[in-house]
UniProtKB/TrEMBL annotation:
UniProt key word ATP-binding: yes
Keyword annotations from UniProtKB, A to Z: ATP-binding, Coiled coil, Helicase, Hydrolase, Nucleotide-binding
CDD domains: SF2_C_Ski2
One CC-aspect GO term: nucleus
The protein's name in its UniProt record: Helicase C-terminal domain-containing protein
Domain named Helicase C-terminal: residues: 26-224
PANTHER family xref list: ATP-DEPENDENT RNA AND DNA HELICASE, EXOSOME RNA HELICASE MTR4
Gene Ontology molecular function terms on file: ATP binding; helicase activity; hydrolase activity
Annotated coiled-coil segments of the chain: 247-281
A matching Pfam family: MTR4-like_stalk
GO BP annotation list: maturation of 5.8S rRNA
Amino acid sequence: GRGGRGGRGGGRGGGNQGDMQKEVATIVEHIQKLQWQPAIVFAFSRKECEQYANTVGRMAHINFNTEEEKAAVEEVFNSAIQCLGEEDRALPPILKMLPMLQNGIGVHHSGLLPILKEVIEILFQEGLIKVLFATETFAMGLNMPARTVVFTAMRKWDGEQNRFMHSGEYIQMSGRAGRRGKDDRGLCIMMIGDDMDEATVKSICQGKPSPLISSFRLSYYTMLNMLRRLEGGDTSMEYVIRHSFQQFQQERQLPQLEAQLKEVEAEMEQLGAEGEAVIADYQKLRKEVGVFKDRIQSV
């Protein structure tokens, strides 16, 4: 993807929040002008997602959808929320969501009601949401490609420290840019702070992703759970384990381990058997000493 230099909000708390909202809105204006939609705008907190979406949603001239598309959004939205009770349908988060969605702007994070998340995912897949403000969880598992990906910050709070993104995280999120069969290339816009130099940008963008390591551990609880699930079925526990990612990784390591074993065996042969008799006598004497000590203690 192609990168661009954005504003100076280098991370969580990296600058005036009002200025950041204006800069994000300016980027969305450019996306609309240059027709770079659909776009995913990543923020690292639910609060920021809501703030950016509300700021852009209040701008009357930012409107991505035609009247026909607005009608389609309203139909899908109203149909989906029918499963909610009358009181729930009158909740402020529900009421304020529709006008924003009709303009082609959406929000996706873990704090939304499940029904709203599902509606937003459907609308985005159908091309009725043109700019989606989302947390990084949207990049995990869901097949939701876009033409453009925007990073509102390159720093994130990981529960312990406020750090720059890892290469694997950047690759996972920026990989949403570019739709197969529709776009020649994906566009990636980064809002870079003053504390981010060229070397840091290179290490994030060109670094290698973290290797995938299976966390599968076969415990008694796992075995009992598998027995309960597989009971009466055609699939055996052995089949599940053999086809696990951990088994795949272990089998993949076999050639390397076999090569290491041959190297060790070759080294052992080169050592020869000199001194083997002396070592055996020494071990025998140690055992005898141990026996005598036990006898003395028993007396």
